[in-house]
Amino acid sequence: CRLNRKVEAQSKKIRTLKKENSSLRKRLSKYEQPPKDSNNSSIPPSKENIKTEAIRRTNSLRKKSDKPVGGQPGHEGHTRKMVDVPDQVIDHTSHYCNNCGRDISDLEATLEYTTQEIDIPLIVPTIKEHRHSAKVCSCGCHNRPYAPKKRGGNNITFGKNIQALSVYLNVVQCVPYERLQSLLEAVFNVKMSQGTIYNLIQETNQKTAPALELIKQHIFKSKVVGFDESGCYCNGRLDWSWIAQTPCSTLVFRANGRGGKVLEEQFGDNLKNITAVTDRHSAYFSLPFNNHQICMAHILREIQYLNELDSSQSWSKELGALIRGAIHERKENPTLIINTKTWLGRLDKLLKQNLENLKVEFGRLKKGLMKYRDYVFNFLENPAIPPDNNASERGIRKLKIKQKISGVFRSDLGADAFMSVHSIADTAWKNNQSPFNAILALLEC
Q1: Cβ neighbours of residue 1 under 8 Å, at least 6 residues apart?
Q2: Is 167:421 a contact under the CB 8 Å cutoff?
Q3: Alpha-carbon dihedral 280, 285, 290, 291, rounded to 10 degrees
Q4: How far is residue 292's CA from residue 374's CA, in Å, rounded to a whole number?
Q5: What is the structure's pLDDT at 154?
Q6: What burial class does residue 430 get, using C-beta atoms within 10 Å of its C-beta: 0-12 exposed, 13-18 middle, 19+ buried?
Q7: Is 137 left (phi over 0), alpha (psi -120 to 50) or beta?
Q8: Does residue 429 have a pLDDT over 70?
Q9: 166 CB contacts (<8 Å, ≥6 apart)?
Q10: pLDDT digit string (tens) for 155-167?
Q11: What are the φ/ψ torsions at residue 293 (nearest 5 degrees)?
Q12: CA–CA distance from 111 to each of 81, 108, 115 (Å)?
């Protein structure tokens, strides 16, 4: 009996140790696998630690080419050109001999060479006084070519240039209110409260509606539109910022959800005419789009992780070579309609391979590609479709930079104003226009 009790106790202890060992192995496996970052997964750069970010910024997924370093033959260089009529001319000449010290100020100088210097003058704000006078006609009518003064209004206001600069620095350059206030006073000698800055941005936002409607109508008529979404902390809660963009337009807006219902409310029946370029978020594939193109950059990042996870296998390497080859084919023939039959055949051959001997991450990627197989190579059949969704990620990156600097949006109005002005500024930049001039044009409406 004593032996049986001892054996039973030992067996129980062994079972406990095995369970604990299994749990520890599972926890340890996370550290044995290659770390995930923005190069080999969908983790955004904003969530990387400092060490990982430093490594990412000094490494590249691009392979080294056989081309020499520097500008390639045929590359058009750019350099500053001297102006014919400078604003100021300064002569540099000697008045005394460097050898004997004799006065040579009366001798004629010979010009050897000329240089020009570009500088910014010391900024002193100009103050304009507007005098509002009325004229009384013989009929008794008071003629005033201006709006009546608001009751309780301040006699001193800020001009359009200062208003546009404040909005530009806050939205386009992501300068927070406190630093913007300090910058205006230190550099431009303009004292402005943070409340005034907030009011200027809100006044600009109120004038964005017609421009945003034009942008939205342009996107409605576009055949190919890139979409993306990202978390947005606003007023103590998690909202979602959405982007819809084309090569000429950007529309960023805020919603309280990440589901496809958000796009249905914004676009309605126009979705039926659009080919959506997106990641593999399931919400996009529940909508009645005309067609889809999944982002190849996302797939290549996952393939990079699989290569690091198991360098001895060849499946992910062959898949990566296939996708890179298709992208290269499109770059070499930017206007050609390319038949996808051969490319899909090579993809199907890879998807039929048995990956049970590999880790679960390989099967997960294989399953995802099988599900969205018809949306992998659509960019080859239509030159207007890009192979990746990088443009949408670049368009929404400004929001993540703003959030990383300021932490959160403290009000819904502030978040909506930022996204509205950013939509117009980014649209202007895409059309080779100055975002600052676009904001200035809004204020002058």
Answers
A1: none
A2: yes
A3: 30
A4: 9
A5: 66
A6: middle
A7: beta
A8: yes
A9: 180, 184, 192, 197, 200, 201
A10: 778 889 999 999 9
A11: -140, 115
A12: 20, 10, 12
151-186: buried (b, 16+ CB within 10 Å) or exposed (e) per residue? eeeeeeeeeeebbbbbbbbbbbebbbbeebbebbee
Asked if the model's pLDDT at residue 70 lies above 60, the reply is: yes
Q: Are 226 and 277 in contact (CB under 8 A)?
A: yes
Across residues 412-437, what is the average pLDDT?
A: 94
DSSP string, 29-45: HHHHSPPP-TTTSS--G
Q: What 3-state DSSP class applies to 359? A: coil
Mean pLDDT of 100-123: 85
Q: Whole-prediction pTM value?
A: 0.78
> Does 401 have pLDDT greater than 90?
no
Alpha-carbon gap, residue 18 to 296, rounded angstroms: 43
**Cα–Cα distance for residue pair 62/252, rounded to 1 Å:** 31
Bridge-based pairing state of the strands 224-234 and 237-245: antiparallel
Task: Answer positive or negative: Cα dihedral of 144, 150, 154, 158.
Answer: negative
Residue 59 has pLDDT above 80, yes or no: no
Q: Which of 101-110, 130-139, 178-187, 425-434 has the lowest mean pLDDT?
A: 130-139
Q: How many residues does the chain have?
A: 445
What tokens does 438 get? 């676009």
Q: Determine the pLDDT at residue 442.
A: 92
Contact 205, 416 (CB under 8 A): yes
The mean pLDDT of 404-430, rounded to a whole number, is 91
> Which DSSP state fits 335?
T
Q: How many CB atoms lie within 10 A of CB 223?
A: 13
CA distance 203 to 59: 44
Q: Are strands 275-278 and 224-234 parallel, antiparallel or unpaired?
A: parallel
> What are 27's two structure tokens?
């926890």
Work out the average pLDDT over 3-10. Answer: 91
Which SS3 state, helix, strand or coil, does residue 228 take?
strand
Q: With 0-12 CB in 10 A as exposed, 13-18 as middle and 19+ as buried, what is 234?
A: buried
Give the SS3 label for residue 137: coil
Counting Cα atoms < 13 Å in the Cβ hemisphere of 356 gives 1
